[in-house]
Amino acid sequence: MGALSHIKVLDLSRILAGPWASQLLGDLGAEVIKIEKPGAGDDTRGWGPPFLTDKEKGGAFDSAYFLSANRNKVSVTIDIATPEGQAEVRQLATTADVVIENFKVGGLAAYGLDAVNLRTLNPRLIYCSITGFGQTGPYAARAGYDALIQAMGGLMSITGAPDGSPGAGPQKVGVALVDILTGLYATTGILAALAHRDRTGEGQEIDVALLDVSVACLANQALNYLVSGVAPSRMGNAHPNIVPYQDFPTADGAMLVAVGNDAQFARAWAVFGLEPDPRFRANAQRVEGRDEVIGMIKARTILRPTSHWIAALEEVGVPCGPINGIAEIFKDPQIVARGMQISLDHPIAGEIPLVANPLKLSATPVTYRKAPPLLGDGNSDVRRYPEKSF
After folding, report:
1. pTM given for the model
2. Residue 387 and residue 95: Cα distance in Å, rounded?
3. How confident is the model at residue 384 (pLDDT cuts 50, 70, 90)?
4. pLDDT at 385
5. What is the pLDDT of residues 48-59, one digit of tens each?
6. Mean pLDDT score across all residues of the chain
7. Which of 39, 74, 152, 179 is the most buried (most CB within 10 A)?
8. CA neighbours within 13 Å on the CB side: how many for 103?
């Protein structure tokens, strides 16, 4: 049944951060009711191609983007701009445990669907608001999108090729990573609030901002600056604090070598056929002499194919691997063994592929109960039996 099979989530969010959080809760067993705009639904239903295809009638509908964040949910279409729609949401909120929304700050207050109003009806309710900049501060009223936040939150300043090299300049990450991380932080906050409610009976409000998450996830790079006063710069695939920890050219492509300690370095250095050098024995020395160390290694790795180096490095316990494209990932024997691709039966498209949840719980495993919903597929049942689980 899942660890959260006793929990009902009312999901008023759309796009990615909120739906990512509600999908994770659904994977853990929660009942998730996704509220969507009549006739249109979540914006991401149209974010394609690629789209699903009707297996009988042909024709495209619902994008792959939408599929990535919306399994284990039922869809209910409600126009929250109408008094009738507002009343429906309020009724659903009275029996919900969690509400997730990502409207602009104050956007739901005009409809009486803000935290104050819904928690007055249901004091046990956990109300999670996801915004670009948070509920407070001078930017609170602004809209926030992942790429904008990657720029404003510093992530783009440390992503991309170094200044002066080909292709130099700030780069965003290849997926909407801040949205996904925000969804994960929101989920953590919701689980913490549920644990608090179990002890006290009290619900609470959760304020999660994409910009806050972006700054928090600068991690060691943020502390590198706060401790040293020197702002990190773009380094391509190199690591600011460890050498060697980056990509290297080979005779037939490239590989990634991730040396994590001095013992691993000594073994890798020997594999590359280089004589021990006391100047580079410690990591701090290698960081100082980064250009020379990397240059010496590259002069060797370019002589043999990727498969040779990976086999040799793995034999002595040095972390390394190929730089896979996404097509290669789903053929990789480790990914296959871990079951990271699944399929679910869809009522119109037939069997569809999805990416699995990475959590492996021994007592309450993740469950895949329902493909991403058709728009309004829960209208009849949820409206007829609003207190029932589906």
Report:
1. 0.94
2. 6
3. confident
4. 67
5. 999 999 998 899
6. 96
7. 179
8. 19
Per the listing, tokens 């304020």 go with 207
Catalytic residues: 179
Per CATH, the number for 8-216+336-384 is 3.40.50.10540
What is the DSSP pairing of strand 60-63 with strand 245-250? unpaired
Residues whose CB is less than 8 angstroms from the CB of residue 100 and which lie 6 or more positions away in sequence, other chains included: 9, 10, 11, 12, 13, 18, 21, 22, 128, 130, 186, 190
CA angle, 175 then 178 then 180, to 5°: 70
- What share of the chain has pLDDT > 70, as a percent? 98
Token pair of 260 as six digits: 């994590």
Q: What per-residue confidence (pLDDT) applies to 386? A: 65
Spell out the domain ranges in the chain: 8-216+336-384, 245-327
Mean pLDDT along residues 237-249:
97
Q: How many alpha carbons fall within 13 Å on the CB side of residue 51?
A: 15
- In angstroms, the CA 216 to CA 214 distance is 6
CATH topology of domain 245-327: formyl-coa transferase, domain 3 (3.30.1540)
CA dihedral 144, 148, 149, 151 (to 10 degrees): -160
Tell me the three state secondary structure of residue 69: coil
